[in-house]
Amino acid sequence: MSHFSPVIVTREGMAVIGLKAVTTVQASVEHGAIKRLEASLFKRSIDIPNRVAKTKILIQIYPPNGYFSYNTSYTVLLGYPVANLDTIPTAMAGYQIPSGQYAKVTHVGDEAWISKTYSFIYRHWLPRRQRTPPTYDYEIWDTRYLPGQPQSQIDIFVPLSGNRGGVW
Fold this sequence. Notes:
Blueprint lengths: L1 E10 L2 E10 L1 H7 L1 H12 L11 E6 L12 E9 L10 E5 L2 E9 L5 H15 L7 E6 L11 E7 L9
Antiparallel strand pairs: 1-6, 2-4, 2-5, 3-4, 3-7, 6-8, 7-8
């Protein structure tokens, strides 16, 4: 179950360093692609310099044409917030999330059902407000993130107009 009550918030920019992969929704659901990335990040987390929090950030970069389906490839970066992107370890990537206005939606429950939250955001909430789909969004996995638990919470941030994101 999710809290389908988006709140418009202004967020400061944030630098993130972590591991990057190309996946599909199908690969994530059927083969645990993001879970495998999380396990790899755990092993490499000591290598990330200038970490400013233990909170994990999942950034999802979508195709620029706006078309997205269950089998569409997209890029994910799972990492930690850092003070800057000056030193990116080998085989890792950095991303600068820009400051700006975001719609914040909190997914409550097992992350296996997070697709319902995304469906609400992208198929209902954004179109009703005549917003074009953004090319990225991000999730915050803080102390409320309890994998597989019904009380788990993940905050999803979707950029609003003109907020296009950083570059790799």
